[in-house]
């Protein structure tokens, strides 16, 4: 798996999102933000993931009449660079060289607007159930490919850059597993700078 000069991953299925824009030229990509996502929203403990509503959300094609809760998403314009499905499928929506709209209002190490300098990776899941082993395997590959292409310094959860608004990737996300391979990106002194 690698990331080419245009910011596309060789192992990902490409589904381009219009919800992105150019990064500032001088802005180094030095952070990865881990998220979880599931559509439609699931009650605590539910595990019926799947479907293509996440793709539809990121490409502005979500049928807002399909679920009552989707009405509030009708004007939402969001995206992520990557989505890792429960079965390990990797989908890329935005070139890593572009700014995806995944972090929202956010702050890290005295810097605002984390979308400007980060890559967003969504794992299909929720705060209420563990992620699949294959999702971690794919995540490891993506992180290694990103490290080869960009000067990464930080690996954070969405809740660490937007603690008043977000809880993902949630308590079931296995940070310890990532720290074994990517500990330099999860150093406690780096994490405490937020």
From TrEMBL:
Chief location category: cytoplasm
Domain spans labelled N-acetylmuramoyl-L-alanine amidase: 17-170
For this UniProt record, the keywords arranged alphabetically read as follows:
Cell wall biogenesis/degradation, Cytoplasm, Hydrolase, Metal-binding, Zinc
Q: Where in the cell is it found?
A: Cytoplasm
Q: Which domain of life is it from?
A: Bacteria
* EC class name: hydrolase
Which cofactors does this protein require? Zn(2+)
Cross-referenced CDD domains: PGRP
MF terms from GO for this chain are: metal ion binding; N-acetylmuramoyl-L-alanine amidase activity
InterPro entries (UniProt xref): Amidase/PGRP_sf, Amidase_domain, NAMLAA_amidase_2
Which SMART domains does the UniProt entry name for this protein?
Answer: Ami_2 (SM00644)
Question: Which BP terms from GO are recorded?
Answer: cell wall organization; peptidoglycan catabolic process; peptidoglycan turnover
Q: Which Gene3D superfamilies match?
A: Peptidoglycan recognition protein-like
Its EC number(s): 3.5.1.28
- Gene Ontology terms, cellular component aspect? cytoplasm
User: According to its UniProt record, which reaction does this protein catalyse?
Assistant: Hydrolyzes the link between N-acetylmuramoyl residues and L-amino acid residues in certain cell-wall glycopeptides
Q: Which NCBIfam families is this protein grouped with?
A: PRK11789.1 (NF008758)
PANTHER family, sorted:
1,6-ANHYDRO-N-ACETYLMURAMYL-L-ALANINE AMIDASE AMPD, N-ACETYLMURAMOYL-L-ALANINE AMIDASE AMID
* Family, similarity comment: Belongs to the N-acetylmuramoyl-L-alanine amidase 2 family.
- Indicate what this protein is called per its UniProt record: 1,6-anhydro-N-acetylmuramyl-L-alanine amidase AmpD
Q: Which organism is it from?
A: Chitinibacter bivalviorum
């Amino acid at each position: 798996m690698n990331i080419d000069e245009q910011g596309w991953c060789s192992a990902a299925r490409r589904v381009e999102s219009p919800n992105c824009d150019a990064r500032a030229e001088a802005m180094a990509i030095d952070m990865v933000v881990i998220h979880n996502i599931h559509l439609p929203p699931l009650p605590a403990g539910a595990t019926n993931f799947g479907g293509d509503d996440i793709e539809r959300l990121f490409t502005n094609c979500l049928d807002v009449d399909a679920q009552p809760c989707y009405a509030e998403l009708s004007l939402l314009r969001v995206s992520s660079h990557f989505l890792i499905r429960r079965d390990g499928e990797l989908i890329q929506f935005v070139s890593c060289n572009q700014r995806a709209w995944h972090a929202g209002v956010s702050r890290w190490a005295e810097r605002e607007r984390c979308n400007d300098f980060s890559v967003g990776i969504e794992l299909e899941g929720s705060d209420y159930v563990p992620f699949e082993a294959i999702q971690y395997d794919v995540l490891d590959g993506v992180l290694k490919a990103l490290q080869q292409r960009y000067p990464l310094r930080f690996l954070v959860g969405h809740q660490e850059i937007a603690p008043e608004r977000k809880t993902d990737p949630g308590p079931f996300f296995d940070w310890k597993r990532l720290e074994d391979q990517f500990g330099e990106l999860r150093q406690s002194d780096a994490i405490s700078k937020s």
